[in-house]
Every structure is written in structure tokens, then in C-alpha cells.
Amino acid sequence: MRTHIVWDWNGTLFHDMEAVLGASNAAFATIGVGPMTLQEYREQYEIPIPRFYQRLLGRTPSAEEWLRLDDAFHDRYRELSPSCGLTEGVRELLDGWREAGNSQSLLSMYEHDKLVPLVDTFGLSSGFLRVDGRSGPSGGQKAEHLTRHLAALGERVDPARTVLIGDAADDALAALGAGAHAVLYTGGSHTREKLEPVGVPVVDSLAEAVELAGRITG
């Protein structure tokens, strides 16, 4: 069976870290936390997101605070994200992987109804076996979503020959829990220092990630 890649979207294929930072700083302001630089954000960010906010506050956000944080983040992200584009070289990498006889799909924790039209605007949808975004509340982890994603792909993919490429430790944990492999990319939400302790390969470019995905399952 051919090798399959499950791609992450935000911070991986979609280079949106400036929008994420701006949206996060807007959210922080609702709870009295000052703005971060991009480096500070990447050093401190973690999933699940409520735990990230807990560290910043020194306590668990109340239900009301969580709603304010979530609303402020998504409102500002909607304003900033249209100026973001694909990570450099993405189109060529996706085309090359498919032309080599392999398959790929997209799984994101971005809301499904917003993800699908966004991927369409870049003309990428036809290159994926499946595009899935988050259903249900925001702020959770990817593991259960990946399990459903792989189940929906069915016999077209083998988890043992599947590699999830993402930018967060949570991506790797989800993949390992599903019996798949993972390669983590340093150009998104986490620094290399935050990614390496997970114990999966960490790379500085998506080209390296694709090359490694082919070797891992080859």
C-alpha cells in the first residue's frame, strides 16, 4: 500500500502565525495579560489551549473568561487571516507527493465549515482524499479527530504507513496514539526545543518533512 500523509493546516500548510499571534494578543487583553512576541508565544504555547491560558493566568479560566478568550481570538483571527498565504513551496510538495503515487489528506483543528472554503480558495481540495476540520468545541486535542479521520478514509490508507506532518506536539501525540508516524515542523506554533522532547523527527522545512515521510514508511 502507498504511503499516506495527513497534513495539518494552521502553522503547517497555511503560514498564519502572525495572524495567530495577533488574535492571541487580542484574547490575552480580555483577561489582563499583556501582549507576547512571536518567540515568546512559540516558547509558551501548548495544547489543550485551556492549559495554555491556565499557565498565563496562574489559575484555570472561568467559563465566562474562556468564552471571552475564545470569542476574542476568533474575531481577531478572522480579521487578520485573509492576509496570510501558503507556506513556501507547498503547492509543489503536494503535487510532487501525489504524482509519485502517494496519497494525502488534511486534518485541522480549525472549524470545519471555515476550513473547507479556505482550502478551496487556494485550489488545493482536489489533491486530498479528504479534508476534515474540527467539529464541536474549540480548545481540545487532535487525537479523537485523527481517529475519526483515519476511520473515514477506511481501507484507502494503512495507519502503519501513514505520517502526520504538523507543527505541534499534539499532532505527534495524536499520530502515535492512532498507530501512525509523525514528523514535526519548526515553522509554526512551537519552537524546536518544545517539539524535540516528544521523540519524533523534527525538521525545519516541509520539504524535509515530505522526504522523511517517504523514508519512514519505505
From TrEMBL:
Record keywords: Hydrolase
One Pfam match: Hydrolase_like
SUPFAM superfamilies, per database record: HAD-like (SSF56784)
Gene Ontology annotations for the cellular component aspect, listed alphabetically: cytosol
Superkingdom field: Bacteria
GO biological process: DNA repair
Gene3D superfamilies referenced in this protein's UniProt entry, alphabetically: HAD superfamily/HAD-like, Putative phosphatase, domain 2
GO MF term set: phosphoglycolate phosphatase activity
Classification via InterPro entries: HAD-like_hydrolase_sf, HAD-like_sf, HAD_sf, PGP-like_dom2
PANTHER family for the chain: PHOSPHOGLYCOLATE PHOSPHATASE
Protein name according to UniProt: HAD family hydrolase
